[in-house]
Specification:
Layout lengths: L3 E10 L2 E11 L4 E5 L6 H9 L6 E6 L2 E2 L10 E4 L11 H11 L4 H15 L14 H14 L4 E5 L7 H18 L2 E6 L2 H7 L2 E6 L2 E6 L1 H6 L4 H6 L6 E10 L2 E7 L2 E4 L5 H4 L8 E5 L4 E3 L8 E7 L2 E4 L4 E7 L2 E7 L10 E7 L4 E4 L4 E2 L1
Parallel strand pairs: 3-8, 3-9, 6-7, 7-8
Antiparallel strand pairs: 1-2, 1-4, 4-5, 9-10, 11-12, 11-14, 12-13, 14-21, 15-20, 16-20, 17-18, 18-19, 21-22
Bound molecules: adenosine-5'-triphosphate (ATP) and magnesium ion (MG).
Length: 366
């Protein structure tokens, strides 16, 4: 069990600046997920924590000790990769115990740890099998078992589920969460899948181009993104961004989307937004679930408008509708029975109590 701290950590590969100064405090027992697009520096950051990459600047602290110059084997961490090659000639028990044997751990201690890990992972009945007699998900569990038996200070995972099919990924995601709830080892988990990040993390770290964009709980990031990048990266279907202006009309602040479409800004936001009247390059950020079919009862800050629907996608429990506003393709989520039809006009409702105003020049949420 340990805290992990990154202080101004930098990684340079020749002229490529892969990680450009990352500061992060990870609490003991915390489950942290690093998420971001391909090439943003997630694996590099993880590998620097593991000691598999030298750092070009800054400090890495594990359990109170600066480990910059400590070799990987002495950092007391266990890593699970996407390619978690098991030894094909060894059975599950031998695969899980191999590392402990190398460390000359007493045989009864090995036996106790392997059986306990097998129980946590629900693979007790597979201990005699060889890897080729296991399904993909079972092999993944064995790879996790190998990490658990070492009882390390920190678990590091790099896209451990990306070789599995969609259904198994979801299942194993739940398994990993259950395991963490049992063993509580500090965990840093890398994925480019924002759903995986949201579902697993105590806190999510969104990375972009070698820097941290935002750190927060899944709900924080979802409801209060601080940048357009985070707003657009977290959530599926993604948040809509509609070019807009703020105007003062008859003493009230209005959000103008097109010549014929404008809506009053929620009263709770007027003080905050007044300074941006007339500012160019503003965007309204609104999630698809905040654009719905019209309903008999209307709440404050909700506004109805008519749109010609271009595409309709039935999802079962909801239907996605697509239309264009001010050149932007917009997605809304409507009731499957709301009668949405491609090419037809539909009365929709925007819930501006959940709006975001974005400065598209700086990429900041205002
Ligand atoms: N050994 C290396 N030599 C030179 N450049 C590297 C090396 N390893 C990584 N990079 C570069 O560093 C940047 C970050 O790479 P990294 O592997 O950390 O990305 P990532 O966020 O894990 O991406 P992915 O989601 O594709 O795995 C990329 O631009 C990559 O090309
Ligand atoms: Mg990677």
């Amino acid at each position: 069990m340990a805290q992990v701290t990154l202080r101004k950590v930098i990684k340079k590969y020749d002229e490529v600046l892969a990680v450009r100064g990352v500061d992060l405090d990870i609490a003991d027992k915390e489950f942290i997920v690093l998420v971001g697009p391909s090439g943003c520096g997630k694996s590099t950051t993880l590998r620097m924590i593991a000691g598999l990459e030298e750092i070009s600047g800054g400090d890495i602290v594990i359990g109170g000790d600066v480990v910059n110059d400590v070799p990987p084997k002495d950092r007391d961490i266990a890593m699970v990769f996407q390619n978690y090659a098991l030894y094909p000639h060894m059975n599950v028990y031998e695969n899980m115990s191999f590392g402990l044997k190398l460390k000359k751990t007493p045989r009864d201690e090995i036996d106790r740890r392997v059986k306990q890990a097998a129980q946590i992972l629900d693979i007790t009945e597979l201990l005699d099998r060889k890897p080729k007699q296991l399904s993909g998900g079972q092999r993944q569990r064995v790879a996790m078992g190998r990490a658990i038996v070492r009882d390390p200070k920190v678990f590091l995972f790099d896209e451990p589920l990306s070789n599995l099919d969609a259904k198994l990924r979801v299942q194993m995601r739940t398994e990993i969460k259950k395991v963490h709830q049992k063993v509580r080892t500090t965990t840093v988990y890398v994925t480019h899948d924002q759903v995986e990040a949201m579902t697993l993390a105590d806190r999510v770290v969104v990375m972009n181009a070698g820097l941290i964009e935002q750190v927060g709980s899944p709900n924080d990031l979802y409801h209060s993104p601080t940048t357009k990048f985070v707003a657009g990266f977290i959530g599926s279907p993604a948040m809509n961004f509609i070019p807009c202006h703020l105007e003062q009309a008859a003493g009230a602040l209005r959000l103008r989307l097109t010549d014929s479409l404008s809506m009053p800004v929620p009263a709770s936001r007027t003080a905050r937004y007044t300074a941006f009247v007339g500012r160019p390059n503003l965007m309204l950020g609104l999630r698809p679930e905040h654009i719905m079919e019209t309903r008999p009862h209307i709440e404050p800050d909700q506004h109805d408008f008519n749109m010609t629907i271009e595409v309709v996608e039935p999802m079962g429990m909801e239907t996605l509708v697509y239309f264009t506003v001010n050149g932007a393709e917009i997605c809304g989520r409507v009731n499957p029975n709301a009668g949405a039809a491609a090419g037809q006009s539909m009365k929709l409702r925007a819930d501006l109590s959940n709006m975001h105003l974005i400065d598209d020049t700086t990429g900041k949420v205002l």
